[in-house]
Amino acid sequence: MMKVTVIGAGAVGSTAADVIARREVADEVVLLDIKEGYAEGKAMDLMQTSSLEGFDTTITGSTNDYEKTAKSDVIVVTSGIPRKPGMTREELIGINAGIVRTVVTNALAVSPKAVIVIVSNPMDTMTYLTYQIAKEMGINKKRVIGMGGALDSSRFRYRLGEAMGVSQNDISGMVIGGHGDTTMIPLTRLATWNGIPVSRFINADSLEEVKQKTMVGGATLTGLLGTSAWYAPGAAICQVVEAILRDEKKIIPSCVYLNGEYGQKDICIGVPVVIGKGGWQKIINVRLSNEEKAAFEASAAAVRKMNEALS
Ligand SMILES: NC(=O)c1ccc[n+]([C@@H]2O[C@H](COP(=O)([O-])OP(=O)(O)OC[C@H]3O[C@@H](n4cnc5c(N)ncnc54)[C@H](O)[C@@H]3O)[C@@H](O)[C@H]2O)c1
Ligand SMILES: O=C(O)C[C@H](O)C(=O)O
């Protein structure tokens, strides 16, 4: 019996629950929110799609009662405020750090063996905060994963598919670094169209445009929607949760604690990791070029500066 708790039943949390249920990735999904009755309402609405969609996952709701989340295999944290047009993710730290600290402490207390997936923004700093809480509780660093790279890489593939006029399903590509408008690093050099470098099919200017559009992917949607996105974030969360529960050993760039890897220590930032049972199993060293290394260092410096706001 696989149990997943999603904290925050807002746009992203409820979409993640929806995708997880429709794909029957877990037997049980518990949605928890602080707003009275809200998670229960979302769970009931989603359960009424069960006979229409043909899934047998059970979704229940909880108003801040963590006992209902006990013994979860995976905890997904989406609670917190989203940005509005014109804002950066970093501006959310004041409110979201307090929320993430509370929910992570409460959730891990009743599910100490869970893998915890952090989504709330600014995600890299929220993951670092969670790592610190988990460490104090004696929880292995491999059980703490920040979700950002899965989403950013799907946006990269979307933009490459669009620019090349081909199916994004045939495109492979990763985004590493921080999950910020200026800290993301789409690895254009390593992106392929079914194994063939994309640079064979797209000129340098167009590739640079793809890179820039990918980096501001979240901001573009926030400008259009008035709040940040949820469909691709929800599906990206499911990709990570599925890889953990099915022990898929997929390479998914994710925000994890580095202890010397990629030349960085005491920071959580996006790098390619193998995801499976128990969380992230291994960091993959892709051997960055000098230019990519410099971009990674700048990205880490920006994330580190953001982390200072925690103390
Ligand atoms: N990492 C990523 O790739 C990514 C992608 C999309 C969104 N996000 C972030 O996810 C977060 C949620 O976005 P959203 O669009 O779902 O926002 P939302 O406002 O729709 O939902 C957030 C929910 O959190 C709940 N909440 C607040 N405090 C809580 C607490 N203490 N305990 C339990 N629930 C609490 C709210 O009641 C609300 O229902 C934002 O911070 C957003 O920036 C991250
Ligand atoms: O852009 C945001 O603020 C939300 C999220 O991080 C995203 O990339 O969609």
Automatic annotation (TrEMBL):
Enzyme Commission designation: 1.1.1.37
Class in the EC hierarchy, top level: oxidoreductase
Domain of life of the organism encoding this protein: Bacteria
Lactate/malate dehydrogenase C-terminal domain mapped to chain residues: 151-305
GO BP annotations listed: lactate metabolic process; tricarboxylic acid cycle
Reactions listed under catalytic activity: (S)-malate + NAD(+) = oxaloacetate + NADH + H(+)
Gene Ontology MF annotations: L-lactate dehydrogenase (NAD+) activity; L-malate dehydrogenase (NAD+) activity
Full protein name: Malate dehydrogenase
Species assigned in the record: Jiulongibacter sediminis
